[in-house]
Structure formats: structure tokens, C-alpha cells
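STRUCTURE:
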């Protein structure tokens, strides 16, 4: 991912050359403490599985990471989860204040679509398809956050929990897969890629719920605000053992869909990505 990191630093600098606290706040979360890059790596590995040069997907990988990063900045705000630790460092609003953090999230949201519009490697059809897909999935993520807020200090049922994870986490994973399909000119696979993303999102969030009760905040690099906000989780609803089984079932189903529903030149990069998620420890 070294080439991708150099790419987004250069693109960010070119598109936001003005100095100030807001751009500093954007860089703090996007570039300086960028996390595991799960979503951009998913775009890149999807393109690789289609047998295409992964570098053609860097604009789209950056775009989905901008959306993801903006969502984390806003999720951590005092008016939302009020978290003070993210990726092992103070959250954006702790460093720059809630005002600049809010603007940083706004700026990253719009930057995502500027990156797509100004791409020199995507054709017009790909730009329109990518813009439409990312906007739809970002709005789905917002809907998931609405469900999450409504679920605080209350017991929700299993169906609501699965919908929450499908939208809040799954939508951007679906977006990453679909953007990889768009960059590879395989629009016929977009529906299947979307469904794979939903499976991965539910499994990924079950995994996070499991980590919240089996690992400490230092290891995770973030606060466990679900407990503070009295949110239902997969562990609280199903128990630890069943949550682990369900997590694996969703990952296995995603792997099966990769093998049986997509027109890939080589499924290994995408399969390896999913196996890496299964084996992650934080």
C-alpha cells in the first residue's frame, strides 16, 4: 500500500493547497493516522482479482477512504458517541475542537467526489457510475448511523441489529467492492459485489463486538462507547459463542459468493483480503 499512501498524499495536497486548521484536521485523520485502509485495499484487491492494473483504482480507493474517514470524525463528536480515542491517538475533535472536526468531516465528504470528478484514468461512464454508487452507499451508511442513534439506551431485536450493521458498516464495504468492479469495467457484477459487501459488513461488526469484550482499549486503539451508551451488540444479543459462529458464517458466505457469482480472472487477491479480515486481531 506504499504507492497508494504516496498517491493520496499527493492528491490531497493538490486538491487542498490552502493552509488552516480545517485542512490540518482533514490531514490528521486521513493521512497522519489513516488506520488499516480496509476499504481502499478492498477496492484495489477487487481490481487485482479482475486482472487489471490496481493503480487505475487509486482515485476510487481514495474516494471511499475520504467518506469513511469523514464518518469516523463525525461519529466521534461529542454530539454523537463522544469518543476521545481513535486508532490509538486522540480523536479529531479532541485535537482541533468540535467545530474544526465537523468542517474536516464535511471537507472530506466533498473531497471524495472531487477526486472522482478530476480523475485522469476513469472514463465518463465510470465517473458517473462511481459517483452514483458512492453517494448511494454513503447515504446508506448515514441511515445506519440513524438506526445506531435510535438504538442507544434500549434493547433492539436481532433483525434491527443486522440491519444496523448492514447499513452502517456494510454499505461502505459494498461501495469499495462495487468501485473495484466499476474500475474494472465489470458492471454486470455490481449487484453480487454489493451483497458480498453486506456479508462482510455484518461479519466485520460482529468481530468488533467480540473484540470489545475480549480485548482492552489500548489494544483496540479506541474507546468502547457501546457500553457507555448502552447499545445492543451481537454479543449482548446472541452470547459470545454464537456471535463467533455467526461471524464465521457471514465470512464463509462472502467467500462462497466471491467464488460462485463473480467474473474474476483470479479470485485469490479478494479471497486473501477476506481471510486477512478473518484473522485480524483488532
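SEQUENCE:
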Amino acid at each position: 500500500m506504499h504507492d497508494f499512501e504516496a498517491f493520496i498524499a499527493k492528491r490531497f495536497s493538490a486538491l487542498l493547497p490552502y493552509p488552516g486548521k480545517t485542512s490540518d484536521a482533514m490531514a490528521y485523520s486521513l493521512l497522519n493516522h489513516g488506520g488499516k485502509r480496509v476499504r481502499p485495499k478492498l477496492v484495489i484487491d477487487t481490481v487485482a482479482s479482475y486482472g487489471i492494473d490496481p493503480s487505475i483504482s487509486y482515485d476510487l480507493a481514495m474516494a471511499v477512504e475520504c467518506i469513511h474517514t469523514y464518518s469516523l470524525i463525525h461519529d466521534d463528536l461529542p454530539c454523537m458517541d463522544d469518543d476521545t480515542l481513535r486508532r490509538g491517538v486522540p480523536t479529531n475533535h479532541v485535537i482541533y475542537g468540535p467545530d474544526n472536526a465537523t468542517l474536516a468531516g464535511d471537507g472530506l465528504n466533498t473531497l471524495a467526489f472531487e477526486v472522482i470528478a478530476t480523475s485522469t484514468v476513469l472514463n465518463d461512464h465510470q465517473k458517473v457510475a462511481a459517483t452514483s454508487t458512492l453517494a448511494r452507499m454513503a447515504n446508506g451508511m448515514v441511515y445506519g448511523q440513524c438506526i445506531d442513534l435510535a438504538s442507544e439506551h434500549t434493547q433492539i431485536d436481532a433483525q434491527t441489529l443486522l440491519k444496523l450493521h448492514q447499513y452502517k458498516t456494510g454499505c461502505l464495504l459494498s461501495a469499495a467492492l462495487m468501485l473495484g468492479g466499476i474500475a474494472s469495467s465489470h458492471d454486470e457484477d455490481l449487484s453480487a459485489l454489493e451483497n458480498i459487501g453486506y456479508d462482510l459488513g455484518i461479519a466485520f461488526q460482529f468481530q468488533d463486538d467480540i473484540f470489545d469484550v475480549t480485548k482492552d482499549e489500548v489494544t483496540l486503539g479506541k474507546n468502547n462507547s457501546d457500553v457507555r451508551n448502552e447499545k445492543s451488540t451481537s454479543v449482548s444479543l446472541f452470547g459470545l459463542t454464537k456471535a463467533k459462529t455467526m461471524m464465521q458464517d457471514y465470512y464463509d458466505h462472502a467467500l462462497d459468493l466471491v467464488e460462485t457469482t463473480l467474473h474474476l480472472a483470479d479470485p485469490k487477491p479478494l479471497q486473501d483480503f477476506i481471510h486477512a479480515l478473518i484473522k485480524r486481531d483488532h
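REMARK: The chain has 13 helices and two strands.
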